[in-house]
Every structure is written in C-alpha cells, then in structure tokens.
Amino acid sequence: MSRRALFKFRLYVAGDAPNSTQAIANLAAFCRAHLPDRYEVEIVDVFREPKRALAEGIFMTPTLVVLTPPPVRRIVGTLSHTQTVLQALGLLDIAA
Amino acid sequence: MKSTPSPLVNSPAKASTGIAGFDAITGGGLPHGRTTLLVGGPGSGKTVLALQFLVHGARDCKEPGIFVAFEENSKRIVANAESFGWKLAALRKKNLFFMDAQPPPELVRSGDFDLGGMLAALEALTSETGARRIVFDALDVVLALLPDLAAERREIYRLHEWLLTRELTGIITLKAGGDETSSISQQPFGFMQFMVDCAVILNHSVVLGVSQRSLRVQKFRGSSFDENESPFLIGSSGLEVAVAHTLSRVDAKVSNERVSSGIERLDTMLGGGYYRGASVLITGFSGTAKTTLSGAFAEAACRRGERTLFVCFDTNSTEVIRNLASVGIRLDAYVKSGCLRMISARVITGSAETYLVRIKALAKEHGARCVVIDPVSAWSKSGNDLSTQSVADRLIDWSKGDGTTLVCTSLLDEMSGQGEGGSQLQISALVDTWIHLNYLVQAGERNRGLSIVKSRGTAHSNQVRELILSDAGVTLADTYTAGGEVLMGTLRWEKERAERVVHEAAEVAAELKRVKLDAEEAELNVRLKSLQTELVAKQVEKALLVRSTQSHEGELSRGRTQMKELRGADAAIPKRKRSPP
C-alpha cells in the first residue's frame, strides 16, 4: 500500500545556511532514489516566512514535515542519514 | 521590603528585575540589551526568576517580553505562576508572550541542524510585539539534541549574536548538574559563562534538614556587584532576595520619641519608655513573663492606634490572647478591629531566612509600626546558627531602616545556668534595650525579677524590680532592700506589713500624747482664769485699802488742824505754805 502512497513533504529551511542547502539536496536525492514520481516537496524559508515557522512551531532548521501519509512526522537535520529517514517514513522494509 | 538605595550606581543600562533585593545586589538589575546566564540545579528557582523578570518588564517597565519554553509547556508554566498573583492571563493579551519550543518526543533527528528556525520565528514575534526582554528557559534541552560540541557552541554563539544585534535583554537558563556550582564549568556549555555579560548562580541546598536557597552573581561585565552569596526565598509574590544592607544605605532617622512599654513603672525605669524605632530584647527562662511583657507592649501600641504585628512561635495566637487576658492584657478587641495582627509562626516552616522574609512581608502588608517576635530564639532551632545570626542582624537592620519598633523575646537555655548569658543569636549586642527577666529564689519562693541590662541613650534604673502579674494587670513592685538583697514575694509583703504596723503604732502614740497635752492645756487655762479672778479681787481690795487709808489720813490731818485752831497755839500756816516743793 505504501508503495503507491503519495508523500507530501514540507521542508523548512533557514535561508542559504549550509545545513539547509544540504537538506534540500539530500531530500531531492532521497526522493529520486526511494520515492520516484510519488512525492511533492514544498520548501519554506523561515527567514522569508517567519510567521509560518512560528505557527507551525518550527524551531530547528532544517525540519522536514511529512504531511502525508499520516501521521504527520517531523525529521530534523540535514537528512544525511538515509537509514533514519527511511525508518521514519516506514519505508525500511521496502528498501531492504 | 523597601528597596534601599545601593552604592552600586544605578546605571540606565540596567534592566530592573523587580525582585526585591536582587536589584540592590546588581545595582539596578540585569545588563540592558545583553545576555544573562542563569545557572542552577533542579528546583533552584531559575524559571521563577526569569519569569518574574519578564512580568516586571511587561507590567512596570513597558518592556514586552517573550518566554521561550524549551522544557515545560507554557500552559503549565502559567498555571504554576498563578500562585504568585502575577495575573499572567491579562499580561499575555498585551505584552507577555510565550513560545512553546519543546522538542516533540517523537522527533527524528537525521544529521546536523541549527536554531535558525527559532530565531526566524522570534524575529517575527519580536517585531510584531516590540519585545525588549526575552527568556530562554532550559536551553540545555535543545542543545542536547545537537550532534556534537562544536554544533552546540555554534548555536549558542548564533543565539547570543542574535540577542546582541537586536539589543534584547535576555536570560538563558541552564541546568547545572549536581549541587556544586563549580561543576558547571566542566559541562559542555560551561563556556557560556565566559561568553555572556552576566552570570547568576542559584543554589538550593539542605542544611540540617532545612532548605536554604541562595544566589550569587558570578560575573557582571561593566558593573560592580555584591559578590557574596545572598539567601533568597520563593515567597508568595515571587523571589525575594535577602540583602545585608549596603554601605550607602541612608541611616535611619533617629527618633527621640518614646513609646510606652505598656507597663507604667517600666517606662519610668527606662526614663520614659522605649525609643521609637528601637529594638528591644527581652531575655529570660521559660515562664519569666517574656510574652506578657511583649503583650503589654503590643496592647499599648494598639491603644495608641499603631498597627502592630505579633508573631508567636511557641504558642498559637489564640492561646496567647487568652493567656494574656488573664493578666489584664486584652488584645482580642484590637485583633477584631484589625489594628493588631497575630501570626502563629509555627505554621511557617523553613529556614531562619524564610521566617525573616515572611515577617517582613507580613509587616509590610499590615503596615506595622510595631513588631513583636516571641521568641526570636526559635529561629536558631531551624537552620544553622551561622545563617541565623546574620538573619538576626538583618532583622534589626530592617526594623531600624523602617523605623519599626521591634520587641523580640529570647528564650534562654535552662542549662546555660543562671547567668545572664546573651542569647544564642548574639542579638543582644545589636539591640538598643535589653531587659532581662529572671527568677529569684528566696525563702522558698520563686519570684520574677526584672532588670534592665542595657538601654542605649537613656538613663535607666539599675535596680532589680519585682514583676507582679495579676488579673488587674502587670506592674513592678516597690522594692525593699535588706542586707543588699532585693526583697520579693512574701518577704516583701512581710516587710511591707511590718512597716505598716510600726507606722500605726507611732500614729497611736502621737495621738495619745496630743490628747494628754490638750488636757494639760485646758487645765492650765482653767487655772489661769481663777488666778485672774483672784487678781482682780486683790486689786479691788488694794484700791479699797488705799482709799480708806487716804480718807483716814485726811480725817486725821483735818482733826489736827481743827485741834490746832481750837487750841490756837501757833501760826503754822506759812510753814505749811513753804513746805510743798
């Protein structure tokens, strides 16, 4: 079932901070590798839209919010550990 | 407590915390536009101090504030703070804002991250609210999520930099592991102490089973500060820091006004009573009427219409009122009218510091001009002697500064012998008037004796007087000295009686003598009268005699002349004419 599910991501980044640019790149690579054609990514720059960050309660950047499939999950960091991300998304067994 | 002027110049670059005592230590508050680090163990009062700082800013300084909660949910913080009466709900609508930044427990971390998001959010919040003060409560929680030490440092610098450029007055609170404050420098974020402009360490320790809180300003760039540890208390309205007053404190106004001790004859002994604003110590063993004396003082104060606070440690206040009524000291009416406030301090538990702060707060609340503490020696039971002594210092200091007349009693240890040993608190050296009560055992009786050990600035009687308690009131008896001893009790009574008898006898004797003299006088008067009558009779008799003699002589000479004329012997007439000189 999860094989077909659409993954909606929202990535909060802090301008062009090294962490954030790294996260954008990591997410793009991850999605291409593990979720081809079934992902949507929205990137929110907290410096440009601080009120969204405030409303959402984003205090650490970069933060990846997994909007669908439920439950809503948050992954903080550069997403450099692919295994952790897979586990968080419940994709570990599929990848294995 | 009155905020006393501090010797440390109150510079405008300080943000007042509104915490009694803390501003005095730091010379006005925390560095304005800079960051302050607040370090302390669990339950040391970090959050309360930080929140109080914000509340004061929002309410009294027109400086809106933001509270960033990393550990506790803001709802819980607000609920917990309700007990301090800060009315956070009203403030939250206008100029006090909370931001919940607790990392969710299910948070997944993958790789490095930073606090850019939080700063961006805060940026939005500060520009929206115009916040000038900000608190990061338990920053260590979020720092712990960072992967390495370098990242931690980087984020701390980022935060610090952000605060500095926005010129926000910030407080960052951190947990200190263990109870030793020195150990924080070994912790990963210990270097923060070097970075920030001001660091305050909170301590919460237990000494002999009694909780003692203290705080110490570790550093304060660009300002002098009180470097010592200052005890503090989390009271009913927040933190209260005890400050031994500072050098430039304006000396209290000294009054020459006398206030009655409540016992007329004691006033006389003291040359008019206690001085207004003086501290009076009444020492004595248990049962020497210490409470009675202090009760008499309280009653006198209330009669003058002065608001009075009576703190009793040994007994319940209702018992004190009942017991004092038995010696004619009626306090219940004044309690009802609100003039007198009785506090049974057994319900207050804690260190001597706690007692002092509570008493100060109560006195302030009541607007008391006279304070009675019965007995102050109860303090030395709770907490170590060292702190108790400094508390006693501060007690006297405070009452002087406020112009409050303070009467405290001190129970002397029975075991310390009959000597007039000073009280354990060493308070006797500090007080202005020291009255010592003692038992004097004479002729199989114990009687209460009162003596004035010292009374600064007043001439006072040096005699040991007997203190008499009766349902008519409290008074001091006349003293009789016999063979160098002051007579008390029945000995005094016997002496009094003996004198009365002697006096009566003398009166009777005098009366008798007078009557006798009266009789003698009357007798003499009678004799005088009869003699006078006799005299008159004699005078009459004498006059008659003269007259009869004269007529007799006239008769004789007339007869002789007639005879001569009849005889016609010789002319005797010229000779007779010559004869009168």
Describe this structure as you would to a colleague.
The complex is a heterodimer of chains A (96) and B (581). The longest helix of chain A is centred in the first third of the chain and has 17 residues, at 18-34. In chain A, strand 3 and strand 4 form a beta hairpin. Chain A is an alpha+beta fold and 96 residues long. Chain A has one domain: 3-Layer(aba) Sandwich (Glutaredoxin), CATH 3.40.30.10. Chain A has helices spanning 18-34, 50-56, 82-89, 92-95; strands spanning 7-13, 39-45, 63-68, 73-76. Chain B folds into three domains: 14-241, 3-Layer(aba) Sandwich (Rossmann fold), CATH 3.40.50.300; 258-487, P-loop containing nucleotide triphosphate hydrolases (Rossmann fold, 3-Layer(aba) Sandwich), CATH 3.40.50; 513-581. Chain B is rod-shaped, with a radius of gyration of 47 Å. Mean pLDDT of chain B is 79; it is low at 1-10, 178-185 and 415-423. Chain A binds chain B through residues 12, 14-15, 17, 19-20, 22-23, 26, 46-47, 50-51, 53-54, 57-63, 73-81, 84-85, 87-88, and chain B through 99-101, 103-104, 106-121, 123-125, 142, 145. Strand 4 of chain A pairs parallel with strand 6 of chain B.
Give the tags.
heterodimer, A: 96 residues, alpha+beta, Glutaredoxin, 4 strands, 25% strand, globular, B: 581 residues, alpha/beta, Rossmann fold, 3 domains, nine-stranded mixed β-sheet, 16 helices, 25 strands, 39% helix, 23% strand, disordered N terminus
Report the mean per-residue pLDDT of chain A as an integer. Answer: 81
Global Rg of chain A: 13 Å
Shape estimate of chain A = globular
The name of the CATH topology of chain A is: Glutaredoxin
Number of strands of chain B: 25
Point out poorly predicted stretches of chain A: none
CATH architecture of the largest domain in chain B: 3-Layer(aba) Sandwich
Multimerization status: heterodimer
The number of helices of chain B is 16
What's the helix count of chain A?
4
**What class do helices, strands and sheet pairing of chain B give?**
alpha/beta
Rg from alpha-carbon coordinates of chain B: 47 Å
Count of spatially separate domains of chain A: 1
CATH superfamily of chain A: Glutaredoxin
